[in-house]
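One record is set out below.
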Amino acid sequence: MDHKITHQDIINYYDDCEGDYRLLWHLNEQSAMHYGYWKEDTKLLRDALKNMNDYVFSVLNLNSGERYLDAGCGIGGSSMYAASKIDCEVYGISLSEKQISTATQKSAQKMKMGITQFTVQNYCNTNFQDGFFDGIFGIESICHANPKSDFLLEASRLLKTGGRLVVADFFKSKNQHPPEAETLLLNWANSWAVPSFEYSGSFIDQAAQFGLKLVENNTITSAIQRSAKRLYWCFYPGLICHGFLSLFGLRNQIQGTNVWSTYYQYKSLKQGLWDYRVLKFIKI
């Protein structure tokens, strides 16, 4: 069952924990907050982060001149990457004013081709016209929707007939795990301001109710495992640093819970409780 996570909880998480991402995840350079995609020859996290963008956009089939929505854009790294790579138009939206301000500033400095526009909006209830987009993508952001059906309904409204939706995210490997396993997943979800992780089969069934036909179901868990382990390696040093800085009022409870997320996500992955999937749907 989904637990109560408000929009403000999500905003607080990303705003308060941005410093952690800057320190550990090349946020200043890559502007990406996702796990990354590790190939056999990938040696650096920064390359894995680029690889994930390339992989998602290959599934989405970006085309020059088309219009796309980045649903939950963070500080805009994937939006800018897509627009610059293909010379397309990308609208990025986030609940966080801080993230949108950063994305807008970065795009003014970086964009040499393509168009990006960033606004503070809820991807479950946007102000865009019906059929406005050729494609929509969400990279590790749709997990925050509550319920997920609200996002799928809005995505269906926003897509043109034949438009594509790609969701790269964490999905439960079963509809229901034993209570202890569900508690572990809930602890992880809570640490990232996620109401719940959805079972992929349930997500696909809900999408079909809104005219979104599944055309690809890619499980790429093996490609993100090195990032999951990298986060886990940060757990014990992170606890020590967090505890010390908290003595001086330099860390808060949200940031402390984020440290614990590195433990929860890896332990639940090792127990096979979730998969990383990239799902592609077509609006029919």
In short: The chain has eleven helices and seven strands.
